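Minutes, project huddle
Topic: does the predicted pose make sense with alpha-D-glucopyranose bound?
PN asked that the exact inputs be recorded in the minutes so nobody has to dig through chat later. Recorded below.
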Amino acid sequence: MDETIFEGRLKKHYEELKWLYCELYEGGQEHFGRLVEILRARFEERSASLKKLDSARAENPLWYKKNDMAGMMLYVDAFAGNLKGVKEKLGYIEECGINCIHLMPLLDSPETNNDGGYAVSDFTKVKPSLGTMGDLAELAAECHRRDINICLDFVMNHTSDEHEWARRARVGEKEYQDRYFFYDDYEIPSRFEETCPQVFPTTAPGNFTWLEETKKFVMTTFYPYQWDLNYWNPVVFHTMVDHLLNLMNQGIDIIRIDAVPYIWKRLGTNCRNLPEVHNIVRMLRMICEITCPGVLLLGEVVMEPARVVPYFGTVEKPECHMLYNVTTMATTWHTVATGDVSLLKRQMEIVNALPGEYVFLNYLRCHDDIGWGLEYEWLKGKLIDETAHKRFLSDYFTGHYYGSWARGELYNDDPASGDARLCGTTASLCGIEAALNRQDEDALSLSVRLDLTLHGYMLTQSGIPMFYSGDEIGQRNDYSYKDDEKKAADSRYVHRGEFLWDDAALRKEAGTVQNRLFDGIKKLLKIRKGHRVFLNAAAVSTRETYDVGVLCMVREYEAETLIALFNFSRENRTAWINEEGLYKDLLSGETLEAKGVLMPACGMRWLLKIESAV
Ligand code: GLC
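Predicted holo structure (tokens), as shared on screen:
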């Protein structure tokens, strides 16, 4: 029975899969059989309960496109020590209203030089301090019992330099050197450098690293200890697919394909988003549909919109199920700094015009820095210059701009380009840290309100909201990373601090920052889940408010209409939207007309239409 299911799914995709495979690999006919064997073996090994889940989801392909999914990303060690600890804390996750957890990389990686787990030294093993594969499977099973999904990273672009392949390559084994990009001298590397931009220009300049032991260069797009895998070699592809399916068999529901645009390299190109990348992602999608169709692919494509959307593939040939809404995230913070919503309005219009089937993951903060990937061409029309504007944003969010309460830190500040990225928790960027330090109650109220408004804005967008652990209790920056020499050079650790359970306990004490945020966010989530107007399928549009500080979005689904208003300025404003009918503010409970709507400084409203005009 199981076998026929597998054969049936394989048959459906066989021709296309083989075709794409043979396009990548010379002599592909010969190796393709090996790939199919891997799929079959991993399918056979998959548990009956996961296969049941696969079938249920395959029959209900809209299962993740509703308004009931809310995610949270967290570091296992920072949150609960280890995987067993996370299992014990699932009650807290549920209390937050969260039903999907993204566990930050947890596979084995070296003690130092691990890029927060993104330098994997063994794909078959969980980092011992966090637990075992068995613990992961148990956690996943418990999550499933509670209707919680688990998302895990798959770091496929590179391995750690302590991975077995890297160790063997370093001692001169050619077979293993061929799984990476090795060069005897700098001739080819220098040609790559001509066209390949740098990911970490300050903390890890260049795309190659000299290995004294072997007297060769190896390609290292990210950190020098992260060696780029060579997907031109089918053994690499096969092995990584095998590792991927093994993880899925532990009960992972969503796989985040880390740094996916980078996985294919070709001389003379910028080595990003090459057609072969899409070929591979499409193959991964088919591989999942054949072996574990209940699993979703989330692509990490931190690029401009024109580069992101192609990773959805087409209706006939889909690639990723979900992608990050990265430009909206960056534009949101730009709007906080400028108090001018015009670029955000435009960004919403661009997103709203995309096909409704696309599912975006919306977020305010994640474990990485914020890169200022804004639409500078458009801003130019407003006489805003890219370099000067980036400087302003950096100054604003590090609190060096007059009137700014934000407390962030720069990341990869590149003096050559004037470019810098930004780190910091939502609370600190919203001004909560500075207000608490200065014991300024008014500023604190305003900052808490801004924080809630930004979360409300994230929840107004179609797709899946992804919270960053700690944000629900307003966790501030953690500067202790500076005392740890393994972390000090990487300011992203400022927002990767330990989860403060003592602070979390304050969520139950009326009036505390933790309580205001926790209850506020829970309320927003509850309303979102309770109204079908938040479904992915709703029509979304924007309206003019005639106030540069206030954004208006309208969601419509069947008989429901919701007008969402967000005041990004630090003053009270009026949104001149002049809509007909009577509305109920789902947050304050007031009934009001939506003509000239008063908006408190940094505040928001969710106005549900209760009566049409007569
Ligand atoms: C992704 C991760 C980032 C990491 C990089 C290299 O962009 O989000 O944290 O440094 O990949 O693996």
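Observations noted during the meeting:
- The pocket of alpha-D-glucopyranose is lined by residues 115-116, 118, 155, 222, 258-259, 300, 367-368 (CB under 6 Å).
- The chain has 22 helices and 25 strands.
No decisions taken; revisit at the next huddle.
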